[in-house]
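Researcher: Here's the sequence for the chain we discussed earlier.
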Amino acid sequence: MAPVLLAFALLVPAHGFGGPAASPSDLGRFTGHRQLRDVPQVRRDTAAKAESTSSEGVETVETVETKSNLLEAFWKFLRPHTIRGTILGSSAMVTRAVIENGQAPDWSLLPKAMLGVLTLLCGNGYIVGINQIYDVSIDVINKPFLPVAAKELSVSQAWVAIIAMAIGGTWLSYNLFGPLIGSLYAFGLFLGTIYSVPPLRLKKSAIAAAMIIATVRGFLLNFGVYYATRAMLGVPFGWSYPTIFITCFCSVYALVIAVTKDLPDVQGDLENKIDTFATRFGVGTVATAASAVLLANYGAALVWTNSPAAAAFRPKILLPAHAILASLLVRGLIRLRRARYSQEGLKAFYRLIWLLFYSEYFLFPLVGPIEAQDEKDAFDQQVHKVLEQRFNLDGSFTNLYNEGDDSETWQRDATKEAREIVWGRRFKVRIVDSATDGVAAEAQHRQNRAEESRLKVRGLATGSEFSSTQSSGPSQSEHDAESSDDNSDLYFQQDSGSEPFEGSPS
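Model: Thanks. This is the structure I predict for it:
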């Protein structure tokens, strides 16, 4: 206890806590330590350390903010409203293809499907990105918020981004979906390039620009996704009436988008001598004409639901939905007129057109049933005939849409082959791919398995004999597949009790 009290006494100032403090020399003498530095120097050192720590913290914050700003700029560079349209469109086409397949989806294909979406986004990013690079002078006036125009993203950074997206997207399309889809993808990138890049720079022509946008967003997107999805599901390609409907609808809608996108950009287009319908005829005329075209597009649903293809649609869903969307369009046009075609009013009208476009893709999976009952019955009857004529089976051994484990493998293969024949003749569509096409190879593989099953049924060959026969030359298997397809119409012209036709393989 004594040492503690002694130490306390030494540290207390001589005049108590209220008197003057001891000098540094006195403290050094009392404690036996070296003298302390001057108080002002200590304060300067402390301030320097604090300033150094503060500067390091500021640099760290600035680095994080720079990275965050770069990501935000890149996101704006991709034009999010076009990304939403691409994702919704591809999702709707995939959903419709799965519904028409009539079987539960194979979830093991999900990673490939996600890579397919990434491929589409790369193509979308390339097209909108290269347009921003060559439209800087226009965007400074019309769209100063875009990252290249606002100098949030340098031109060199933009070039690196679009080149990476173009190479990555093209590589994925060829390797995932084969030469046909890869070629269509490259063609879409080519159209996006000549739209923006001199000397062609077809965006200067109002008609050429509208046709390019309609081709890419209306036809290539819908056809490409639908074809690729059916290929992944192992189903031969065929146009269904709902798919034809959405392709026609979106092609017309894309034409309208191509025209109305220039409504808020009239000032910059005039200064840069860009020929658009808005600069030719005025924003009021173009907005009214575009609305009239879209109303006719919505009204076309009446034609579809009263045509010979009516069984492929659900009028109770399609017609009321189109009536609601059309009424929203009319309301938007009225508001635009009340706003006297101001800049904000034109932007709001253009956003409305995109929202209505999104809504159609949300609606699309619901516009048609999986199959109308009478159409389904006719389809089943045709499959039964194929089973009877080609495989000498009565067609009643298994459920055509619910193939369980109780069926023999060769029976399931025979049913799948019969369904493929009916699908191929039903839509009268044949897609001829190159020998390296993964889709064609898969179709040939299914044909070989079905042929082996047929031979097993007739007792003409074993699996090993069939394999050796098939391996003797690809030309013979291709001839079998060709003759099978060419003669398949005869199945539907014969009675169920008739003998197999003369040209069928035996």
